[in-house]
UniProtKB/TrEMBL annotation:
One of its GO terms (molecular function) is methyltransferase activity. The keyword Transferase applies. Gene3D superfamilies: Vaccinia Virus protein VP39. It comes from the Bacteria. Residues 68-154 form the Methyltransferase type domain. This is Class I SAM-dependent methyltransferase. Keywords: Methyltransferase, Transferase.
Length: 257
């Protein structure tokens, strides 16, 4: 088991709860539109934005231990390291690491991370939950490796959002099989995702109930990750939140033992 050096600081800053700006949301949207043509620019911007969110709730990451779980090509890990964090990338699919993964990247199963209990000050997972068959076990593992009082950042694209079908959205509303077949006919190449294999129908309401039922974490914020307004309000409205949230961001704090 890997055990990291304890961090040098433990102070935290509370999140303000303030909605992000419209300018920020538009910049992210434009980057997403160019993802296929310029993935480096898209994911570098997303990484800067995500680390900004972490620091808004937990203060500067410099000198702190960060576990980036399911971080793919390492964009988030690189951004954490650029700000002075001791960040480790743990990715279950070696193909997702790309040709030049960050130094020290580890191929690791998200259900059984090779980290000691409480090893990380911040455990970070961006757009991974919808790709695991057992979200409850995955969340439990994120909590386990976070120290008491530490921050857990989890975001995911919920199934009923307009982007829930990923590359074959929004046709997933007509059925996953039909949407996937349409994508393959239109592009002439196989779809990356298959429902029930590497993409799962994860919903906002059940996820919130599951997290609220835990006694080892408390929810600091549950909000739409990308919207510029009413980010927490929309998540409180059953039904509507499944469509309008687009991407649910959970900021959790592990409770003291």
């Amino acid at each position: 088991m890997t055990r990291f050096r304890p961090p040098g600081r433990t102070g935290t800053l509370p999140g303000t709860g303030k909605d992000p700006s419209l300018r920020r949301s538009l910049a992210l949207f434009r980057a997403f539109l160019r993802e296929q043509d310029d993935p480096d620019a898209c994911y570098a911007l997303l990484a800067r934005d995500a680390v900004d969110q972490v620091e808004a709730y937990d203060g500067p990451v410099a000198g702190r231990v960060v576990a980036d779980v399911g971080g793919g090509g390492g964009y988030f890990t690189r951004e954490f390291r650029a700000r002075g964090a001791l960040a480790c990338l743990l990715e279950p699919d070696a193909r997702e690491l790309g040709e030049k993964p960050p130094e020290g990247a580890v191929v690791a199963d998200g259900y059984l991370l090779p980290l000691a209990d409480g090893a990380a000050d911040v455990t970070f997972s961006s757009n991974v939950l919808e790709h695991v068959a057992d979200p409850g076990t995955f969340l439990s593992e994120l909590v386990r490796v976070t120290r008491p009082g530490g921050l857990i950042y989890v975001s995911f694209t919920n199934w009923l959002s307009p982007w829930g079908g990923h590359e074959w959205a929004p046709w997933h509303y007509l059925g996953a099989g039909r949407a996937r077949a349409r994508y393959e006919r239109r592009t002439g190449r196989p779809a990356k995702h298959t429902l029930g294999e590497n993409l799962f129908a994860v919903h906002v309401g059940p996820t919130l109930r599951q997290v609220r039922a835990r006694d080892d974490v408390r929810i600091v914020s549950a909000r739409s990750r990308y919207w510029p307004f009413l980010t927490e309000t929309v998540v409180r409205v059953p039904g509507l939140r499944e469509f309008a949230t687009w991407n649910l961001l959970l900021i959790l704090r592990r409770c003291p033992a």
